[in-house]
Amino acid sequence: MRSIGWLTPLLIFSVFWTAGCGEEPAPELFSAGYVRQREVEVYSGIIGTVTKVCCEQGSEIEEGQVLVETDDTHLRLALDAASSRRKRIAAQIEKSRSEAQPMSLVTDPVELERDRAVLEMAQIGLEQTRDALDQKAEMARAGLIPLDSVPGATDDINRARSMLDETLDVTQEAEQKLNEANQSSEEALKVLESELAESTIAEKMASQRLKQAKILAPVSGEISERHIEIGEVIFPERALFTICVPEEKWIDAYIKESGLAQIQKGSKVSIKCPEAFPDRNFTGTIIWISNKAEFSPKSLQEGSPDSNLVFPIKIDLPPDTPLRAGMSVKISLTEDKSDRSD
């Protein structure tokens, strides 16, 4: 028994020695990170009145899908007028070349009346814009809507007035040509060819404005916010929707000075989300490392002044990751281990 007793302290020492010789846990190199997601705001390219909203908050949409339709009456009239003018000039040129005789630059009175009708629609559009802006300004002064939600009235009225002036110029030009005398065939042909080029451009612009009456989704994703209702007047400066793109997610995080030498662009990291997925590990790829140190946010500081200097990094996530925007995650280095739990 005496020979066995002296072994007891030795065994206890051996156990503690073995435990002490184990690997120490690797120091934490990263501060907590947060999942981010790409968001795209949708704007209108024109001033118009909403006649139909084709999606709701939470709707999944595809790129190119119609989100909003606006009143396009005056835009269709403008396109019809521009198209008619181009066709008429093209017909005059064709006739001149086929008959090889002097021709007149007299503008068709029917075309002139159509130009005047477009002018009248532009004037009505300007007045509607003024009324809409005055109404929103009154609501802002009454405290019904935020003051900063009212677009710049001067810019919008100037834009509408500019469109009116362009239409007025076309009408005045038509009236002037109506009073012009016959010119030589060669000179008249050159003028008409120039007019044809201008009218072709005007038709394309009118067609483009008509297409903008329907506002399309710039990307595929999910509508996270909707800011409009039927009957509202929309402006180019005002966001209509916010679209979240689920496939484009990343993590904003920080790495301490002591870990900077251990990573580079392309390095793999292990990601855990203890709250939502306590039993799963995910893998991400470092795609950006800041060249400049920053002071760590107070919520991430550990008390030691040395730990307060960190470098922001960006970690790319796979498109099919179940991690959601806003989640808090923990990050550590990994040896290119894939997410075996997916």
Summarize the main sheet. Answer: 6 strands, antiparallel, barrel
Distance between the termini: 58 Å
Judging from the principal axes of the Cα atoms, what is the shape?
elongated
Can you give the mean pLDDT? 78
Element-by-element helix/strand order: HHEEEEHHHHEEEEEEEEE
Low-confidence stretches: 6-25, 102-106, 336-342
Number of strands: 13
**Integer-rounded radius of gyration:** 35 Å
Residue share in helix = 25-40%
Total helices: the number is: 6
- Strand fraction equals 25-35%
Structural class estimated from helices and strands: alpha+beta
Give the total of domains. Answer: 3
Can you list the strand order of the major beta sheet? 1-8-12-10-9-13
Describe the structure.
The structure is a single chain. The chain is α+β, with helices and mostly antiparallel strands and 342 residues long. It folds into 3 domains: 102 residues, Elongation Factor Tu (Ef-tu), domain 3, CATH 2.40.30; 58 residues, Beta Barrel (OB fold (Dihydrolipoamide Acetyltransferase, E2P)), CATH 2.40.50; 138 residues, no CATH class. Helix content is 38%, strand content 26%. The chain has 6 helices and 13 strands. The strands form 2 sheets. It has a 6-stranded antiparallel beta barrel with strand order 1-8-12-10-9-13. It has a 4-stranded antiparallel sheet with strand order 5-4-2-7, with no helix packed on it. A hairpin with a 3-residue loop joins strand 9 and strand 10. The longest helix is centred in the middle third of the chain and has 33 residues. The radius of gyration is 35 Å and the shape is elongated.
